[in-house]
Design the sequence.
C-alpha cells in the first residue's frame, strides 16, 4: 500500500498525467553515467558497474530479465551478478 499512497501523493503534487508517465522526460542513463563517481564512491568493493537500459533487447547478462522487468521510470532496478 505504500506504493499506492506514493503514487496518489505524487499525483496530487505534480498532476495525474505526470505521476503515471511511463517514460522519463530526461535520459536516466545519461544522468546515472554523469554521476557515476558520486553514486559509487562509497562502494569500493564494486569493481565493474554497467548501467544498462531496461528496453535493450539482449545485454548478455544471464538472469537479468526479472530485474529489467521491474525497472520503472525514475525507479531503476539493480542486478548483481
Sequence:
Amino acid at each position: 500500500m505504500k506504493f499506492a499512497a506514493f503514487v496518489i501523493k505524487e499525483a496530487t503534487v505534480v498532476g495525474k498525467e505526470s505521476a503515471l508517465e511511463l517514460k522519463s522526460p530526461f535520459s536516466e542513463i545519461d544522468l546515472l553515467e554523469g554521476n557515476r563517481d558520486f553514486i559509487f564512491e562509497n562502494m569500493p568493493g564494486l569493481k565493474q558497474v554497467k548501467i544498462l537500459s531496461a528496453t535493450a533487447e539482449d545485454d548478455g547478462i544471464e538472469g537479468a530479465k526479472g530485474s529489467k522487468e521491474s525497472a520503472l521510470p525514475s525507479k531503476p532496478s539493480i542486478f548483481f551478478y
Remarks:
- The radius of gyration is 15 Å.
